[in-house]
Design brief:
This protein is 43% helix and 17% strand. It has eleven helices and eleven strands. The protein has helices at 14-19, 41-49, 65-73, 90-94, 114-135, 148-162, 175-189, 224-235, 237-244, 253-271, 314-339, and strands at 29-34, 54-61, 80-85, 99-102, 140-143, 170-172, 200-202, 209-211, 276-283, 291-299, 302-306. Helix 5 links the parallel strand 4 (99-102) and strand 5.
Length: 341
Amino acid sequence: MFSRFCHPNAAVRLGTMIRNFSVSARNNHRVVVLGASGGIGQPLALLLKESLLITELALYDIVHTLGVAADLSHIETKSKVTGHVGPEQLGECLKGADIVMIPAGQPRKPGMTRDDLFNTNASIVRNLAEACAEHCPEALVGVITNPVNSTVPIVSEIYKKRGVHNSNKIFGVTTLDTVRANTFVAEAKGIDVHKVNVPVIGGHAGITIIPLISQATPAISFPQAEREEITKRIQNAGTEVVEAKAGSGSATLSMAYAAARFTFSLLHGLQGKECITECAYVQSDETEAKYFATPILLGKEGKVRNLGIGKLLDYEFQLLKDALPELTDSIQKGEEFVSSA
């Protein structure tokens, strides 16, 4: 059961995480959002602006960042907002960062394959990772830009080339998969979603997303046909939103919520709060894949411990077997993108 992860819902829900911080801890963190003018970046920045732990919120994009920063700066919360536009201002934006969140890049559109997305976003992530490695190598980095299964290896390989790699500080933000699993399972069972926590392992695309309903808190069971149906919905939830938006965008608002939740968990960890856990896509030896999402214990240096996969149902084990070839290929693609440059 998920209780082995310190607390059945250790990643406290977003509203509580925004408001309830200890005034005795260090409350002067600098958080950077790269891609702050985009569909995820703007609502993410808005949610982060509410945090009492953030003294400075630094926003970067290639266009419109000054307007976004001016807009947010009028909100009556403590954090100072700065806007930075274009590559010449990127270094200034990153200096002194404690956390860097990266939603930069193009969203997925109807009919777009993951390869299409990779071809668009890989170079964007590479360039931002180069800047992070140079200007804030000790910062915790949350990679949101899809395809996460490949972009996280890109960031890691850049850091390795720069000689500043620390696997405990680079995360693929897969929190949205957990958020969706919690929502869909709670709806199916008619229970309070705030009391539900479903760990999601694997990757962050299609069949690589593996919800472990058997490890949910509270204990939940479904007939097999219903278990398969809800699993497929969780795996295809991104496509569900893309199709519903009919070409106007992808999952921006829910992703911003999930990214903010993950950022607040990182901040809690930096504060030294105990038993902060989130599922995240990290360098891993849990499977043959070099990167793999599992529940992670967070602390002052980022990842404290990988809490592992746990016991799987036969059905979940088959999902894992099915996911590994695609996940391994995606990782290799990211690594080769850097090595061939």
